[in-house]
Amino acid sequence: MTEFVFRPAGVAALDARLEAAGLLDPAMEEVGRAVAEAAQGLAGGGPVLLLAGSGANGGDALVAARYLAGWGAEVRVLAAPSRHALTRLNRERLAAFGVEVGELTPGAVTREAWGSVVLVDGLLGTGFQPPLRLELAAVVEAVNAARGAGTRVLAIDLPSGLDATSAVPPGESVRADVTVAPVGLKPALLFGEAATRAGEVRVAALALPPDWAAGEAWATRPDDAAVAALLPVRRADAHKGTAGDVWIVGGAPGMVGAAALAGLGALRAGAGRVTLHSGAEVPLVTPELMVRRHGDPGGWLAGTGERPDAVAVGMGLGPGAAGLARTVLGWGLPTVLDADALQPELAGAGHDRCVWTPHPGEAARLLGVGTAEVTRDPLTAARGLQERFGGVVVLKGGPSVIAHPGGRWVSRGGHPGMASAGMGDTLAGVIAALLGQGLSAADAALAGVRLHARAGERAGIRHGYGLTATDVSAQLGGAWLDLTGGAGRGC
Ligand SMILES: NC(=O)C1=CN([C@@H]2O[C@H](COP(=O)(O)OP(=O)(O)OC[C@H]3O[C@@H](n4cnc5c(N)ncnc54)[C@H](O)[C@@H]3O)[C@@H](O)[C@H]2O)[C@@H](O)CC1
Ligand SMILES: [K+]
C-alpha cells in the first residue's frame, strides 16, 4: 500500500474536515479499534494497561480500552483529566462499560504496569509541543522502566515525547516496540534517532474520501507495485540503440573509481551503451564499458556536437566540476548531477529533465546550512533544494527523499551495509540509465532509488555490513525482476 506522510498541520486539517462532516467520532472509533486489535495480538490474552493523555491521542486509548474490555481482556486504564470533547465522551462510554479509570501518575503507572503484558501509550500524539512538562516526563520515565522490566509498549500515532516533524527527539520519549499510526506516517517515524524509538510501525488506514488524505499529506511513501509500474517494458525488437546511450562524465586522477562505479550501475540498470568520459585513465572494470580519455574534458564537452540520451556528471570529477555541469545542463538533456557537480553556484540552473543527488553533507553545502539541519528534517531540506535548484532532488539517506515539483516521496527499503563509499556513484548511474530508457526525471529518480535499495537488500543478505557498491550493482538485475514479478522479457 502506498502510504501518506503527515505533519501535525495536515493531521489538524484532516481532523477539521472530519469534524465538519460529523466523522470525527467514527474516525476515533476506527483508530481505537485498530489499536485494540494490535494490543490484543501483542498481549496474547494477558492484561493490558492503557494510558490516556488529555488530547485525542488519549481518546484513541480510551476507545481501545473499551474494545479490549468488550473482547474479554483484562484492562487497566489510567487517564489525565481532559477538556477534549470526544476524549471526555469516550471516557464516559468506558465508564458505562464498567471499566474503572485511575488517575495518571508515575506511581500508578509503575504499579499497574506490574503484571501487564502490554502497555498502550496514548499520552501524546501530534498535538505535543516540546518540551515535555515535568509531570508527563515522570510518566514517560515510568513507561520506559516498565518496558525495561519486560512489558511490551505499543504507541498510538507516535511514541509520546517525539516531535512528529523531527528526526531528532527533543528529549526523553517513550520507547515503543510497536507504533500504530492512524491514517498515515509522521516524519519522526521515518528518520533518524526518532524512528529508532518507534519500533515496528503499522499504519491503520481510515475509511476516508480518497482525496482527503492525499490533499493534506506532506509526502507519500510509494509501494513496490507503484514503483514497478514506472519501469520500462521493452519490445522484443529492442536493441542497444533503443535502450539508451548513457554518458558518465567523471573521474579525475586518484578518483577514477567513482566514474567506473557509475558506469557499472548504468549498465546493470539496463543502459544500451555506456561511455565514460574522463580526464584520467579509468580502469576497465568491465569490458562492456567504453572509456574515452580527454586531455581537457571541459573544452571537449564545450566543443563536441555528439549527444547521448542521458548524462551523469560529477562522480570523482574534482574541482571544475561546476563548469562542466553547467555545460551539460545547457544541452537540456536528461541529466544526473552528483558529487562534485553539486555546487551552490548552480542554483537555478536546473531544468525539468535533471536530477540532483546529494547526500546530507552535500545538501547542507548546497543550502548553506549545517548537516544537522538537513538530517533533522530531510523532507523540508529536499523541498528547499528542489525549489532552489529546479528539476528533481534525491536527498540520499535511510530512507531517501525524492522532491519533485509536484511533491515529495519517501523511499522504502535498503540495507545498513549500504553505508559505504561508492553507493552514491552506483545510484547516479542507475538513474541515468533509467533516464536514457525514457523515464521522466521524477520517475527515474523514484524507480532508481528503489531499484538500488532493493539491490542493496539482496546484496546485504550475502555480505551483511561488508557489502560494496560493486556487490549492489551485481544485484540490480535481480532487483528489477523482484519489483516487476519476473517481467522483463520482450512483449
Ligand atoms: N485526523 C487524524 O489523523 C486523527 C487523529 N487522531 C489522534 O489525534 C491525535 C492528535 O490529537 P490532539 O491534537 O488532541 O493532540 P494530542 O493528543 O497529541 O495532545 C494534545 C494534548 O497534549 C498536551 N500537551 C501538549 N504539549 C505538551 C507538553 N509539552 N507537555 C505535556 N502535555 C502537553 C496538550 O495540553 C493537549 O491536551 C493524533 O496523534 C492521533 O492520535 C485520532 O483520534 C483520529 C484521527
Ligand atoms: K502516543
From TrEMBL:
Which intervals hold domain YjeF C-terminal? 223-483
Q: Which residues bind AMP?
A: K396, G397, G398, P399, S400, G424
- Give me the reactions it catalyses: (6R)-NADHX = (6S)-NADHX; (6S)-NADPHX + ADP = AMP + phosphate + NADPH + H(+); (6R)-NADPHX = (6S)-NADPHX; (6S)-NADHX + ADP = AMP + phosphate + NADH + H(+)
**Cofactor binding note from Swiss-Prot or TrEMBL:** Binds 1 potassium ion per subunit.
Cofactor annotation: Mg(2+); K(+)
- What range(s) does the YjeF N-terminal domain occupy? 11-214
Q: Does the keyword Nucleotide-binding apply?
A: yes
Q: Which UniProt keywords apply?
A: ATP-binding, Isomerase, Lyase, Metal-binding, Multifunctional enzyme, NAD, NADP, Nucleotide-binding, Potassium
What is a single molecular function from GO for this protein? Answer: ATP binding
Which residues does the annotation say bind (6S)-NADPHX?
A: 56-60, 125-131, 157, 258, 316, 359, 425
Under Pfam families, the record lists:
Carb_kinase, YjeF_N
What is one process in the GO biological process aspect for this record? metabolite repair
Might you give the EC number(s) for this enzyme?
4.2.1.136, 5.1.99.6
Which top-rank group of organisms is this from? Bacteria
The residues the record assigns to binding K(+) are N57, D121, S160
Function description: Catalyzes the dehydration of the S-form of NAD(P)HX at the expense of ADP, which is converted to AMP. Together with NAD(P)HX epimerase, which catalyzes the epimerization of the S- and R-forms, the enzyme allows the repair of both epimers of NAD(P)HX, a damaged form of NAD(P)H that is a result of enzymatic or heat-dependent hydration.
Q: How does it assemble?
A: Homotetramer.
What family does this chain come from, according to its entry? Belongs to the NnrE/AIBP family. Belongs to the NnrD/CARKD family.
Q: What is this protein called?
A: Bifunctional NAD(P)H-hydrate repair enzyme
